[in-house]
Fold:
Amino acid sequence: MSFKHILYHILFWVVIMLAFAVSEWGYRQSMQDAIIFELLFLPSRLVAVYVNWFVLIPRILYNNKILAYFGVLILVITILAIAHRYFVLYWGYPNYFPQWVDVSRDRVYDLPRLAQSALIIISPVAFTTGFKLFADWFKQRKETEMLREEKRDAELKFLKSQINPHFLFNTLNSIYGLALESSKKTPGLILKLSDILSYTLYESGLGKVPLDKEIQLIKDIISLEKERFGKRLDISFNVEGDTKNIQIPPLLLIPLVENAFKHGIQNEVKKGWINIELFSHVDKLRFSISNSVPSGMEKKKNMDGLGLKNISRRLELLFENRHMLKIEETQDTFSVHMEINFNSKTDA
Structure:
């Protein structure tokens, strides 16, 4: 126990003694007599409080032995009440209150007096028990919250670590295909990829990024993929609303875009299409993306992608009940609709 904690305990007992002395003052001749009377109870109270605090509560009550706890507590209080009666009748009263001394000394086990002593001893025990139960509950709750936050942060970092290599792999694969063809577009695409990598390496480690940066990244990806697919791709990207003052977790929208290219266009031998719509407001963000499904593609193959699973989990961790992720699939269309509400504090 540190010196600081010792001071807290001393202060506690000073306050307790003064409080009880003030209440006792009306029954005594002076405040001094009231303080002395309360000090005579101090040894019994000290033993009762600390036996209960350090032994009975942690070793019995916290092991769900409630009946045993109350039984042992009553036994301890009874023993201390008897010991206190011996103490005051044979030492305390003769030295400080001789007018109270009973010459026969046979009133140690007087039931009313014994019960009175027990109640006086147990009064700070009741108070400190309630305080300890609350303090331990609060401490446990705080530790639980910290563990939950640590688990949440670790899971988010793990999800991000999966997103970046996954996205990088698909982008490099696109450039690799053009490099095999000795395309003159390859250097320009590598430069685009450099900008994208700069974002994923340096921005993704932040808790939140401006929505405009995420939009620009989407535009860079679209530009890169347009070069790859050429006339095979028909794509539209429409942005509405105020995007300047909105911040979101980094790489939150990218997996949806990447998923549309990977599953909607990459396997399409004919012409495919992708439609992206984003609407932002001060307290709401809506993002919808639809893509054509190549003919003959196995149903729900789109939903098996790592990106969709990750984004669904990230939304649960970051926005809890303040988001919506809806996936729709028909024979020739795959759509994802996401909505985030910023009407309360946004986690990062």
Summary: Helices lie at 3-25, 31-59, 66-96, 111-180, 186-203, 211-229, 254-265, 306-319. The chain has eight helices and seven strands. Residues 17 and 47 are 15 Å apart (CA to CA).
